[in-house]
Amino acid sequence: MYHHSGSVTQQPAGSPTGLLVPRGRDAEAILFQRCAWCATAMYHRLLCPVCRGSELHTERSEGTGTVRHSTVVHRNTPGARNVSLIEMSEGFVVRGRVMGPPIGIHSGDRVRLSTAEDPVRGEPVFQLLDEPCRAWT
Fold first, then answer.
1. pTM: predicted TM-score of the whole model, two decimal places
2. What is the chain's pLDDT, residue by residue, as a tens digit (137 residues)?
3. What are phi and psi of 7, to 5 degrees?
4. Percent helix, strand and coil across the chain, each to the nearest 5
5. Residue 7 CB coordination number (10 Å)
6. CA–CA distance, 88 with 94 (Å, rounded to integer)
7. How far apart are CA 80 and CA 72, in angstroms?
8. Which residues pair with 128 in a beta bridge?
């Protein structure tokens, strides 16, 4: 589940849990955890998936990433919408929605975090960085 990043903050260095804490600024940020032992980046975890370490430090993402997978969903919505897996530049993967026509979102497209939030699912919303110039196939 995605929690609006405007209400979270970094914990002081040395915090053993790496849990997110309420905060009032940085509305367009995604916070993630990084393992102190193996430096693996992850999104909303209690233990590191690589070394099972519990010493996780919260960091702020710069908000850019690449679409790794996108699918069009027609169920439980008035219109078609896309659900995408975005690999952020820091190395973790987050589920969200990319603005634009669902059929126009492809793997490899570069995206940036938008200030908008999905009103139904509460997931982050991204916008395309480069408008695709694809030939009709």
1. 0.69
2. 444 444 444 444 444 443 333 334 455 678 999 999 999 999 989 999 999 999 999 999 999 999 999 988 887 767 777 889 999 999 999 999 898 887 788 899 999 998 877 766 778 899 998 765 554 44
3. -110, 20
4. 5, 35, 60
5. 14
6. 7
7. 6
8. 111
Identity (one letter) of the amino acid at 19? Answer: L
DSSP string, 36-99: TTT--EESS-SS-TTT----EEEEE--SEEEEEEEEEE-TTSSS-EEEEEEEETTS-EEEEEES
Tell me if 8 sits within 8 A of 21, measured CB to CB.
yes
- With tokens 């990319």, the residue in question is 98
How many Cβ atoms from other residues are within 10 Å of residue 49's Cβ?
Answer: 11
